[in-house]
LLM class flavin-dependent oxidoreductase (Brevibacillus agri), 320 residues
Amino acid sequence: MSNGKKQLKLSTSLITPGSSGGGWRDQAAQPERILDFAFYRELARTAEEGKLDYIFQPDKYTVSANSPEELRRGINIWPEPLTLLSALAGATSHIGLSATVSTTYHEPFHVARMLATLDHLSGGRASWNVVTSIGDLDAHNFRNDHRPRHEQRHAHSEEFLDVVKALWDSWEDDAIKIDREAGDFADPGKIHALHHEGTWFSVRGPLNVARPIQGHPVIVQAGRSDTFKERSAQGADVVFTALRTLPEAQSFYFDLKRRLAKYGRPESDLLLMPPQSLDDLVHYVIPELQNRGIFRTEYSGNTLREHLGLPRPSNRFVVR
Protein backbone atom coordinates (compact mmCIF):
# COMPACT_ATOMS: atom_id res chain seq x y z
CA MET A 1 0.00 0.00 0.00
CA SER A 2 2.82 2.40 0.82
CA ASN A 3 5.19 1.27 -1.97
CA GLY A 4 8.02 1.74 0.48
CA LYS A 5 7.42 5.49 0.67
CA LYS A 6 7.40 7.45 3.91
CA GLN A 7 3.81 7.79 5.08
CA LEU A 8 2.15 11.07 6.10
CA LYS A 9 0.41 11.49 9.47
CA LEU A 10 -2.73 13.63 9.47
CA SER A 11 -5.18 14.92 12.06
CA THR A 12 -7.88 17.56 12.38
CA SER A 13 -9.63 19.56 15.08
CA LEU A 14 -13.38 19.23 15.61
CA ILE A 15 -14.11 22.80 16.67
CA THR A 16 -11.85 25.56 17.99
CA PRO A 17 -13.49 27.61 20.77
CA GLY A 18 -13.73 31.30 20.00
CA SER A 19 -11.78 31.15 16.74
CA SER A 20 -14.59 31.37 14.21
CA GLY A 21 -15.34 35.09 14.63
CA GLY A 22 -18.47 35.77 12.62
CA GLY A 23 -18.05 32.64 10.52
CA TRP A 24 -21.05 31.06 12.21
CA ARG A 25 -23.28 33.35 10.12
CA ASP A 26 -22.23 31.64 6.88
CA GLN A 27 -25.09 29.70 5.31
CA ALA A 28 -23.00 26.52 5.26
CA ALA A 29 -22.24 26.74 8.99
CA GLN A 30 -24.31 24.89 11.58
CA PRO A 31 -23.99 26.87 14.83
CA GLU A 32 -27.26 25.47 16.15
CA ARG A 33 -25.55 22.05 16.35
CA ILE A 34 -22.60 23.08 18.50
CA LEU A 35 -23.85 20.96 21.41
CA ASP A 36 -25.47 18.27 19.25
CA PHE A 37 -23.69 14.93 19.60
CA ALA A 38 -24.88 13.81 16.15
CA PHE A 39 -22.91 16.73 14.65
CA TYR A 40 -19.64 15.58 16.21
CA ARG A 41 -20.38 11.97 15.34
CA GLU A 42 -20.68 12.99 11.69
CA LEU A 43 -17.39 14.89 11.84
CA ALA A 44 -15.58 12.02 13.54
CA ARG A 45 -16.89 9.45 11.09
CA THR A 46 -15.89 11.66 8.15
CA ALA A 47 -12.38 11.87 9.57
CA GLU A 48 -12.34 8.10 10.08
CA GLU A 49 -13.56 7.60 6.51
CA GLY A 50 -10.47 9.52 5.41
CA LYS A 51 -8.26 7.25 7.59
CA LEU A 52 -6.92 10.21 9.59
CA ASP A 53 -4.70 9.40 12.54
CA TYR A 54 -6.75 11.33 15.08
CA ILE A 55 -9.18 14.13 15.81
CA PHE A 56 -8.69 16.58 18.63
CA GLN A 57 -10.80 19.03 20.57
CA PRO A 58 -9.17 22.29 21.74
CA ASP A 59 -10.41 23.89 24.93
CA LYS A 60 -10.11 26.76 27.38
CA TYR A 61 -11.78 27.59 30.69
CA THR A 62 -13.49 30.88 30.03
CA VAL A 63 -15.74 32.44 27.43
CA SER A 64 -14.05 34.30 24.57
CA ALA A 65 -15.96 37.50 25.21
CA ASN A 66 -14.73 40.55 27.14
CA SER A 67 -17.82 42.71 26.58
CA PRO A 68 -21.60 42.43 26.17
CA GLU A 69 -21.12 43.03 22.44
CA GLU A 70 -18.73 40.09 22.14
CA LEU A 71 -21.14 37.92 24.09
CA ARG A 72 -23.87 38.94 21.68
CA ARG A 73 -21.87 38.42 18.48
CA GLY A 74 -19.56 35.49 19.20
CA ILE A 75 -19.93 31.80 19.93
CA ASN A 76 -19.09 31.27 23.59
CA ILE A 77 -20.22 27.70 24.17
CA TRP A 78 -18.59 24.40 23.24
CA PRO A 79 -18.46 20.84 24.65
CA GLU A 80 -15.97 19.70 27.28
CA PRO A 81 -13.37 17.58 25.42
CA LEU A 82 -13.07 14.44 27.54
CA THR A 83 -16.85 14.04 27.80
CA LEU A 84 -17.23 14.51 24.06
CA LEU A 85 -14.40 12.16 23.08
CA SER A 86 -15.61 9.47 25.49
CA ALA A 87 -18.94 9.53 23.67
CA LEU A 88 -17.19 9.47 20.28
CA ALA A 89 -15.18 6.42 21.37
CA GLY A 90 -18.36 4.38 21.01
CA ALA A 91 -19.27 5.95 17.66
CA THR A 92 -15.92 5.21 15.98
CA SER A 93 -13.58 2.22 15.83
CA HIS A 94 -10.11 3.29 14.70
CA ILE A 95 -9.46 7.01 14.77
CA GLY A 96 -7.47 8.51 17.65
CA LEU A 97 -9.14 10.84 20.17
CA SER A 98 -7.14 13.77 21.54
CA ALA A 99 -8.43 16.01 24.35
CA THR A 100 -6.98 19.36 25.40
CA VAL A 101 -6.47 19.50 29.17
CA SER A 102 -4.61 22.27 31.00
CA THR A 103 -2.08 21.44 33.71
CA THR A 104 -2.74 24.84 35.31
CA TYR A 105 -6.31 24.17 36.43
CA HIS A 106 -6.38 20.43 37.11
CA GLU A 107 -4.79 17.82 39.38
CA PRO A 108 -2.55 15.01 38.05
CA PHE A 109 -4.58 12.18 39.60
CA HIS A 110 -7.80 13.34 37.94
CA VAL A 111 -6.19 13.77 34.53
CA ALA A 112 -4.36 10.43 34.72
CA ARG A 113 -7.57 8.67 35.67
CA MET A 114 -9.75 10.29 32.98
CA LEU A 115 -7.28 9.69 30.15
CA ALA A 116 -6.53 6.13 31.24
CA THR A 117 -10.27 5.45 31.24
CA LEU A 118 -10.65 6.98 27.76
CA ASP A 119 -7.78 4.82 26.51
CA HIS A 120 -9.45 1.65 27.81
CA LEU A 121 -12.94 2.55 26.62
CA SER A 122 -11.65 3.43 23.13
CA GLY A 123 -9.45 0.36 22.74
CA GLY A 124 -6.20 2.33 22.95
CA ARG A 125 -6.98 5.53 21.02
CA ALA A 126 -6.60 8.27 23.66
CA SER A 127 -4.31 11.29 23.39
CA TRP A 128 -3.65 14.30 25.63
CA ASN A 129 -2.98 17.74 24.18
CA VAL A 130 -1.01 19.24 27.09
CA VAL A 131 -1.44 23.00 27.60
CA THR A 132 -0.51 25.38 30.42
CA SER A 133 -3.20 28.09 29.97
CA ILE A 134 -1.49 31.19 28.57
CA GLY A 135 -1.87 34.34 30.63
CA ASP A 136 -4.58 34.74 33.25
CA LEU A 137 -7.73 34.80 31.12
CA ASP A 138 -9.07 31.64 32.79
CA ALA A 139 -7.95 32.53 36.31
CA HIS A 140 -11.14 34.33 37.35
CA ASN A 141 -12.98 31.00 37.27
CA PHE A 142 -10.63 29.33 39.77
CA ARG A 143 -9.23 29.95 43.22
CA ASN A 144 -5.62 30.92 42.59
CA ASP A 145 -3.79 30.86 45.92
CA HIS A 146 -2.30 27.45 45.07
CA ARG A 147 -1.87 27.97 41.30
CA PRO A 148 1.50 28.65 39.65
CA ARG A 149 2.37 32.16 38.55
CA HIS A 150 2.84 32.65 34.82
CA GLU A 151 6.64 32.31 34.99
CA GLN A 152 6.29 29.08 37.00
CA ARG A 153 3.90 27.28 34.70
CA HIS A 154 6.44 25.39 32.63
CA ALA A 155 8.12 23.90 35.71
CA HIS A 156 4.70 23.17 37.20
CA SER A 157 3.59 21.48 33.97
CA GLU A 158 6.74 19.32 33.81
CA GLU A 159 6.11 17.97 37.31
CA PHE A 160 2.41 17.50 36.50
CA LEU A 161 3.18 15.47 33.36
CA ASP A 162 5.77 13.33 35.13
CA VAL A 163 3.31 12.49 37.93
CA VAL A 164 0.61 11.57 35.40
CA LYS A 165 2.98 9.22 33.56
CA ALA A 166 4.05 7.65 36.86
CA LEU A 167 0.41 7.06 37.77
CA TRP A 168 -0.16 5.35 34.41
CA ASP A 169 2.82 3.12 35.23
CA SER A 170 1.63 2.35 38.78
CA TRP A 171 -0.06 -0.82 37.52
CA GLU A 172 2.18 -3.14 35.53
CA ASP A 173 0.73 -4.57 32.33
CA ASP A 174 0.20 -8.00 33.88
CA ALA A 175 -0.85 -6.86 37.38
CA ILE A 176 -4.46 -7.99 36.93
CA LYS A 177 -4.76 -11.78 37.32
CA ILE A 178 -8.50 -12.53 37.72
CA ASP A 179 -7.82 -15.99 39.16
CA ARG A 180 -11.27 -17.02 40.37
CA GLU A 181 -10.12 -20.31 41.84
CA ALA A 182 -7.40 -18.71 43.97
CA GLY A 183 -9.49 -15.61 44.63
CA ASP A 184 -6.78 -13.28 43.28
CA PHE A 185 -7.95 -10.29 41.27
CA ALA A 186 -4.50 -8.66 41.10
CA ASP A 187 -0.87 -9.21 42.04
CA PRO A 188 0.03 -6.60 44.71
CA GLY A 189 3.72 -7.00 43.86
CA LYS A 190 2.99 -5.46 40.45
CA ILE A 191 1.07 -2.44 41.78
CA HIS A 192 3.24 0.49 42.81
CA ALA A 193 2.82 3.52 45.05
CA LEU A 194 4.54 6.71 43.85
CA HIS A 195 5.12 8.49 47.16
CA HIS A 196 5.74 11.61 45.09
CA GLU A 197 6.60 14.71 47.11
CA GLY A 198 7.44 17.58 44.79
CA THR A 199 7.35 21.34 44.57
CA TRP A 200 3.72 21.38 43.48
CA PHE A 201 2.21 17.96 44.10
CA SER A 202 1.99 15.30 46.78
CA VAL A 203 0.68 12.08 45.26
CA ARG A 204 0.87 8.65 46.89
CA GLY A 205 -0.84 6.53 44.25
CA PRO A 206 -1.36 4.02 42.82
CA LEU A 207 -4.00 4.96 40.24
CA ASN A 208 -7.37 3.23 40.48
CA VAL A 209 -7.43 2.48 36.73
CA ALA A 210 -5.22 -0.20 35.18
CA ARG A 211 -2.29 0.83 32.98
CA PRO A 212 -3.61 2.25 29.68
CA ILE A 213 -3.70 -0.01 26.64
CA GLN A 214 -1.09 2.20 24.96
CA GLY A 215 1.05 2.28 28.10
CA HIS A 216 0.71 6.06 27.98
CA PRO A 217 -1.89 7.89 25.87
CA VAL A 218 -0.15 9.88 23.12
CA ILE A 219 1.23 13.20 24.42
CA VAL A 220 0.63 16.18 22.10
CA GLN A 221 2.04 19.68 22.61
CA ALA A 222 2.00 22.91 20.61
CA GLY A 223 4.29 25.94 20.66
CA ARG A 224 7.36 27.59 19.16
CA SER A 225 9.61 28.90 21.93
CA ASP A 226 13.02 27.50 22.74
CA THR A 227 11.76 26.35 26.14
CA PHE A 228 8.83 24.62 24.45
CA LYS A 229 11.10 22.78 22.01
CA GLU A 230 13.27 21.53 24.86
CA ARG A 231 10.25 20.25 26.81
CA SER A 232 8.82 18.58 23.72
CA ALA A 233 12.10 16.88 22.93
CA GLN A 234 12.11 15.48 26.45
CA GLY A 235 8.59 14.09 26.70
CA ALA A 236 6.17 14.77 23.81
CA ASP A 237 5.06 12.27 21.16
CA VAL A 238 3.54 14.79 18.73
CA VAL A 239 4.11 18.52 18.18
CA PHE A 240 1.59 20.77 16.44
CA THR A 241 2.96 23.54 14.27
CA ALA A 242 1.37 26.17 12.04
CA LEU A 243 4.46 27.77 10.48
CA ARG A 244 3.86 29.87 7.36
CA THR A 245 6.86 29.22 5.12
CA LEU A 246 8.81 26.11 4.13
CA PRO A 247 12.22 27.43 5.32
CA GLU A 248 10.69 28.39 8.68
CA ALA A 249 9.08 24.95 9.03
CA GLN A 250 12.29 23.16 8.05
CA SER A 251 14.32 25.15 10.55
CA PHE A 252 11.82 24.36 13.33
CA TYR A 253 11.76 20.68 12.37
CA PHE A 254 15.52 20.12 12.36
CA ASP A 255 16.08 22.21 15.50
CA LEU A 256 13.51 20.17 17.41
CA LYS A 257 14.66 16.79 16.11
CA ARG A 258 18.31 17.37 16.99
CA ARG A 259 17.36 17.91 20.65
CA LEU A 260 16.01 14.37 21.15
CA ALA A 261 19.40 12.68 21.36
CA LYS A 262 20.27 14.32 24.68
CA TYR A 263 17.24 12.58 26.22
CA GLY A 264 18.12 9.22 24.73
CA ARG A 265 15.30 9.35 22.20
CA PRO A 266 15.55 8.49 18.48
CA GLU A 267 14.17 11.06 16.05
CA SER A 268 11.33 8.70 15.12
CA ASP A 269 9.91 9.05 18.67
CA LEU A 270 8.56 12.55 17.94
CA LEU A 271 6.24 13.58 15.11
CA LEU A 272 5.53 17.09 13.82
CA MET A 273 2.06 17.65 12.38
CA PRO A 274 0.15 20.71 10.97
CA PRO A 275 -3.65 21.14 11.65
CA GLN A 276 -5.97 20.65 8.57
CA SER A 277 -9.51 21.46 7.33
CA LEU A 278 -11.63 18.30 7.45
CA ASP A 279 -13.93 18.03 4.41
CA ASP A 280 -11.43 19.28 1.85
CA LEU A 281 -8.75 17.12 3.42
CA VAL A 282 -10.83 13.93 3.32
CA HIS A 283 -12.49 14.34 -0.07
CA TYR A 284 -9.82 16.07 -2.14
CA VAL A 285 -6.38 15.91 -0.54
CA ILE A 286 -6.32 12.39 0.91
CA PRO A 287 -7.36 10.58 -2.32
CA GLU A 288 -4.45 12.25 -4.10
CA LEU A 289 -2.07 11.34 -1.27
CA GLN A 290 -3.30 7.74 -1.46
CA ASN A 291 -2.74 7.70 -5.23
CA ARG A 292 0.83 8.80 -4.62
CA GLY A 293 1.31 6.03 -2.07
CA ILE A 294 2.14 8.31 0.85
CA PHE A 295 -1.01 7.89 2.95
CA ARG A 296 -2.82 4.78 4.15
CA THR A 297 -5.85 3.36 2.35
CA GLU A 298 -6.85 1.34 5.42
CA TYR A 299 -5.95 1.39 9.10
CA SER A 300 -3.27 -1.20 9.80
CA GLY A 301 -3.52 -1.17 13.60
CA ASN A 302 -5.97 -0.56 16.41
CA THR A 303 -4.29 1.93 18.75
CA LEU A 304 -3.30 5.52 18.08
CA ARG A 305 0.35 4.68 18.75
CA GLU A 306 0.14 2.05 16.01
CA HIS A 307 -1.36 4.60 13.60
CA LEU A 308 1.43 7.07 14.32
CA GLY A 309 4.24 4.51 14.40
CA LEU A 310 5.15 5.48 17.98
CA PRO A 311 6.63 2.96 20.45
CA ARG A 312 4.69 1.85 23.50
CA PRO A 313 6.42 3.40 26.56
CA SER A 314 8.11 1.07 29.02
CA ASN A 315 6.93 1.03 32.63
CA ARG A 316 9.30 2.90 34.96
CA PHE A 317 8.59 0.45 37.80
CA VAL A 318 9.55 -2.65 35.80
CA VAL A 319 13.25 -3.63 35.77
CA ARG A 320 14.12 -5.30 32.48
